[in-house]
Design a protein that fits this description.
Helix content is 30%, strand content 27%. The protein has 8 helices and 13 strands. Strands 1, 2, 3, 4, 5 and 6 form a 6-stranded antiparallel sheet that branches.
Amino acid sequence: MTRIVGVRFKSGGKVYDFDAGDWDLAMGDSVVVETTMGQELGFCTGSPVDKEPHSTHKKLKPILRKAKEEDLERYRENIIKAAHAMTVCKDMVDQHGLGMNLVESSYTLDGQKLLFFFTADGRVDFRELVRDLAGVFRTRIELRQVGIRDEAKLIGGIGPCGQELCCSRFLKEFDGVTIRMAKDQGLSLNPTNISGVCGRLMCCLSYEQEFYEEKLKEMPKVKQMVHTPEGVGKVIDVFPVKNEVRVLIETEDTKSFFTFSVDALSQGGTCPCPIKGRRQEVKEELAQRRNS
């Protein structure tokens, strides 16, 4: 069995698994770990859990130690230094005339690497910028281009719902979001109404999609003919949450709209369209006249 503990490096960031070894850890404990970027300080998302070695996809890196007071002090100092580095880097970006927007900067705990995250419309040649930054900060410099959704996650903000952005608050990874989800949920397809602050489709569209997909399987389709207590009509809209449908019932003189519970529809659900049936009768009648 391997004792595994989840570690998060930023609020709302992705949780990574580490080998807890014999360390006595609990939720919120700060620990020092070795990552691909160097030594970093992270925070436990819970207590260690025993798992079989084969349940992990690769060998996990171990927890180096619980964070000491000097580690926490260096962590706080690095935050201040990274903010200053961000200002310097922005000035240099302007001097080099690069089409990139800096999003965030951070130091590794040991100070051996300084990272800058940026967005850009395309590829950016920042080799000269890296050399200039290395000359100023006397450490290894790394620039990473991120997407616009990652930018919103790093910066944070308030969403259209009035709450803190899901991506910066609790989402570990971005799920695929499609315009079909908005259609299934009966939402306006106006981009302003279904887009987040990042300009992409709102992540929350995927939260209830499974419910809508299952519910729509049980409900009549739009344009389907159904039996109702008021007669035969055509479904013009469906309301999965309410389990209701809106039906158009046409007679020779009037058109009426009704809203029915799906349970109120007759068993069998569909019937031949009376209008199509009448068209067929007319065709047959005309054919008989031609033949005669």
